Fold this sequence. Notes:
41% of the residues lie in helices and 21% in strands. The protein has 9 helices and 9 strands.
Amino acid sequence: GERGVSVPDGRFELHQAIVENQLVLHYQPIVRVSDRTLVAVEALVRWRHPTRGILPPSQFVPALERAGLARELTVWVLREAISQAAVWRADGQPLAVGVNVSPENLRDAHFRRYLDMTVRAVGGPEHIIAEIPAATLRSPEQIASLALMRERGMRVAIDDVLEPTELSDVPADVLKLGRGLVSRLPVDARALEEASVIVRAAKALGRSVTAVGIEDDLTWRRTVALGCDTAQGFHIAPPLSTIDLAAWRARR
Ligand code: C2E
Ligand code: MG
């Protein structure tokens, strides 16, 4: 369930989490299907709560958004991801980073200005991939924000795509097949057919496809057969701290 933060001053506590650096990013590897080369990571936020341990995003991101802190969260995540991407570049191991963007960010003029200035100041926009959930994309203003990101050199990925048709007008570089669909690939012929329709539509539009939530070898082989370009899942690697990611890269 979506209990969120149950204390009366929840907003204060959530705000403290951001400004006091209680948030931490883990990075989940995304590999090219053809040769399993590491090509990107997805930044996934966790809250190192002072008393409740490490909390997954489902337990606090909806509460942050309800508390009006969506901009603060995404700005924090972007800043952290951009500086981490700079560290990897400086180490001679460049890596693109996917950042999950909230739907309200795309309707937020302050956020757009922040993004614009940050990208100009920091450089390396091609290493940032903004991920937006397909189900939340509605308004022309949101679509315009995606177009702006691409004009600035960032890449755009649409998360959890279920319907290829709704996406032909959305400016995007990558379509992601969500865990809900991918986990059904080995057991459900309809899921396989749905996924293959999406992959064909994506190819026709010149977009690449990432399959998310590969948990076993059979699902991996389905992903290969479908013609997905990149893949992400526990079968490849779970979300990792920067230290664990460095060790994982060194082992390969
Ligand atoms: P998402 O963007 O679809 O991210 C993928 C989620 O699937 C992650 O969960 C990841 O750990 C999980 N996952 C990946 N591969 C597998 C697998 O093989 N098996 C299983 N069981 N799970 C897998 P996580 O980290 O709990 O994140 C959940 C959602 O929270 C994300 O879904 C995203 O929508 C949201 N989220 C995460 N970080 C952020 C953030 O920084 N900002 C915002 N606004 N939302 C975020
Ligand atoms: Mg995502």
